[in-house]
Queue: 4 jobs
Job 1
Amino acid sequence: MRASIPGRLRLAQPVPMPRLSADMREGGIVLDMKPVELTDGNFTSEIAQGLTLVDFWAPWCGPCRIIAPVIEELAGQYEGRVKVAKVNVDDNPATSGQFRVMSIPTMILFKDGQPVEGMVGAQPKRAFESLLDKHLGTAVN
């Protein structure tokens, strides 16, 4: 005989958790953090301090979509050392115009609000790591 439970059973709702990915080169676990979404309104204040890597992108851009997972990985890998952010060029024309972004994806590294170096086009993750490590003073020869 089956025991009946009064009332309706409700399934427990899943609790959102950050995804974990193995970073085999480092031999550890890296949280996949999301890049900060920047706008014409918050751009200046968000990049004012420290190192900020900004990805200028658009939803219709194929190469932008290809590197999006790499940008997310970098946000987790460099958390606490480099802020990783994104600017949608279609929604924020003033900011992309200010930095003369003509092709996307364009990545610009800012230090204390000033652009210090940039890259245009889809690049391998190692290229971004080299750029960031160089400016963090942790470059490997």
Job 2
Amino acid sequence: MYHFKKVVENHFNCPYYLRVEVDINNFIFGGNDLKIEEFKDITIAYMRNTGEYGKQNEKLMEDFKEFLRKNKLFTEETTILGIALDNPALTPTNRLRYDVGLVIDKKSEINLATRKIDDGKYAIFEVSHTKQDVLQFWKNIQNLTADLSVDDKRPIIERYVYNKVANHLCEFCIPIL
């Protein structure tokens, strides 16, 4: 079984160091247990940011949601995915890619680029959708995934389902073998 540290090191071909200073046993993810889901035949219509992660990705998300509203695509059935495609430790800042996409039916016609999400199993962590809790999740990801067989060939996906976001929750989908 791969540990997250080993998976990250193999995928990005560099050492991975994480210093955790919190008691992971007290970290709660929306009160739910870890769930495993099989992703199959998921297509997204997406926008991409190329450049520094952070504020530009937040702006992309806001621009994307505005596009959805203007095109009457932001409904109670909406699921938005956020996908960081590159490791900032290895990729020049000006080449970092981040996609924000709407899960669509393959037959949907939306004036955006489309692409398929990698099929496979994902461990789903539900997290309170606050800046503090999301940062806490990323800080503790190595411990949270220590007992999982993480698939280093697929990116971690942030999932924003309309009804969960309305309840201040989001999900992190960790690819597993």
Job 3
Amino acid sequence: MKGIFRTRPPMPRYNFTWNPQDVLKFLNKPPDKDLRSVSCKLVTLLVLATGQRIQTVALIRCPNIKFSTSGADIQIPDFVKTSGPKILQPKLSLPYFHECPNLCVASCLHQYLELTKPLRPADCDKLFLTFNKPHGPATKQTLSRWVKNTMAKAGIDTNMFKPSRHASTSCAPRQGVHIDAIRRSAGWSQDSQTFARFYNRPLVEKYNIR
């Protein structure tokens, strides 16, 4: 086993990743009012803004969302991949983005909650609902498909690039975000080498739009 490890050490799956600015430019437009558009926009913005896995975003429950004058806070009490002894559960903080309202995650979240209020079954407290009746909780596979479709519409080659987690955490340090803030947002411990080894990838600036 040691010989195999030395000849084939674990390597990152991607050596470079896509630039999330391309998707943000696509989403930076007046908000749509139909369920499909708002759903896809919200889940994509959540993944990009928080650096969390789709699995974590799929676990968001309405009772755990709290709004304030500064934005929205979301607690994730459910078990996630990084859960463990002495490890805090994820908490997503989404301040209001007054400089660019079309990309404000907290505002989009509030819009989505109002839009789905009359559609939400009484026994469903998961944030994301499926498009078609009956509107049940959307699975992580469904949310992943929504993000992928949004990426494709923005001109990203989804045959080559898939995980938006890579892109959001690779873009953050280039915008001056401290490594500790990235680790906290993405759910890594302070001494984790995950970011340095796997997630900080060069960004591809141009794509062939299909």
Job 4
Amino acid sequence: MTFDLTRRMMLGALPALGVAGVAGAQTPLPKPGERIFQPGEEFTPSLDTWLDLYGRPVAKVMLNGKGPFSFMVDTGSTVTVIAQRHLATIGAPVVGNVMVAGTTGMAETPMALVNEFEAGAAKKKSVQVAVLPDNGVANIDGILGADMFAGKRLLFNIARKTVAIEGSRHPIYVSPKSAMRIRNGLLAEIDGRIGKVQCKLMLDTGAQNCIANLELSKALLNAHPRLVRLDNVKVFGVTGHVLTGQFIALPQVETRSFYVEDATAVALDAPIFHQWGLTKEPAMIVGMNLLSRLSSFVLDYGAKSFDAKLFAEMIARNMVGMG
């Protein structure tokens, strides 16, 4: 099967200009080659959100009674992050350091204490957040990580540009169609197939674009040798690292909940795959260039379930309703 470089596919190559999301926080000392920066209630609301420059969901957040600030809702991040420029404004003291793992690498950053963290109608007190240099989160004020919505149910409505964070429904039975795993305690993972290749898919609303590991790239090359590929695509990470990978025009991406054609990815030997233990089997970080093709999707961390609806399904229902 061959693909032409459609406008949609070329837009999928935008990680060359983009920023990869934050994935997690740890406390060990940095390893050789890692970059170190020096320091200079429950969620149950419907958040006032929109999509940022790169198509990622963003929520309005109040910090210590000040704001609103624009925080990206990032299911691929296990830690909440704030831009360094806002510490003085909100009066958040630095209380230590934390190791932040992004898609492209790791960095030790300051850790600040926010006395009151408010998103929509919900509040949470004494929240520890990682602090990133301003250039790492230049287009947003911070990142709302999975540590803030662990065990909850997230409803992303792409058509309406809203996100709702609710209590988990904890059903007695979850259909195999909706089954979702939680990797490393916080990361949403489902099974999928890309063309003829079975793979693991990490659902990451903080990533602009899909990132394939090298095993998936090799498997696709064997199964679909005529796929369009472009070399020397750069991915810039929030931790300050830059990696070079290969753009791939993917065959059909299929899960038990949805299928999408004309998707794209960048194949990288990204450090985050090593951290997640996903270097020996085909795997892909599913970014918003693919997720935004859905009309809506739901991640229930408590029930370990994922459901999605395509825009085509919504249009079909509307046509039936119109008679």
